Amino acid sequence: MRGGATSPVKVLYVAGLGRSGSTILANTLGQVEGFFSGGELNFIWKHTLIENRLCGCGKPSRECEFWGPVFDTEFGGQSEALAREMMRLQYSGARTRHIPLMLTEGGRRKIEERLGKFLDNTGRLYESIQSVSGSRVIVDTSKEPAYGYALGMVPGVDLRVLHLVRDPRAAAYSWAKKKRQPDSAEREFMHQKSPTQSAVLWDAWNAAIEVLWRQMPARYLRLRYEDFIADPRRSFEEILKLTGEENAELPLVGERDVKLGISHTVSGNPNRFDTGTVELRQDRAWQKQMNPRDRALVTALTLPLLTRYHYSVR
Hints:
two-stranded antiparallel ribbon; five-stranded parallel sheet
């Protein structure tokens, strides 16, 4: 551990395909005392220091009263040169194409050597986030399996993995919709995927997550988004147990409502800007509005894992 750190930085890493409900889950967890929700921290170097996108608090990242001290304390300011170097290193060893290397001992050593400074600076970053936020647990919704696995290589990081799964047809329906992206001046709408692209990625990422972490049951929890919405209390209890924070107060108002405060999320779905009382409820629009051909295609492409995760084929 670096500097004055006396204990590892506990990170709850949300892994899974995008459009699976990770933003509302993480925003809710951010209301737990001792938890800090940082959003998709794998994009922090690009979205914060280079593109100056909006923080979850609504301010441009460089003007945010949270992220300023995080970088000033550990890196002497918000350096674009450092950000570009970190992005280059990240792309060299923490991308989806590197997952096969991560599955062998020799490959893991190569990845660790290749990432080098990236791992060191990532550790410094998370320690600074913990220090400035005063948190015990940092919630990171980056979702990418390779980045999450690399994060587990960072000295001083105590990684816990929440594998979030959503029905692939619901995810595909969401990916196909045109959705505004208010935090970027360069792109008006969020990236879209075809049903085929979404289904193939859903298969690949969920399979990779299982292979990378299923041998560590004490640090890994798989949660279906539908089960979280159906019984949020039980889901929160399981997540708090995973992080060793069983005594923390649940972030619920009644049984289904959560009260969201202002967050300092780096990147993610536009609902990261939501505040106030929000009801956790199922979104079943895809069941009525999704093109039947697209639904059948996604069902066929994801069939093995679809049944493994106990989703209905019909």
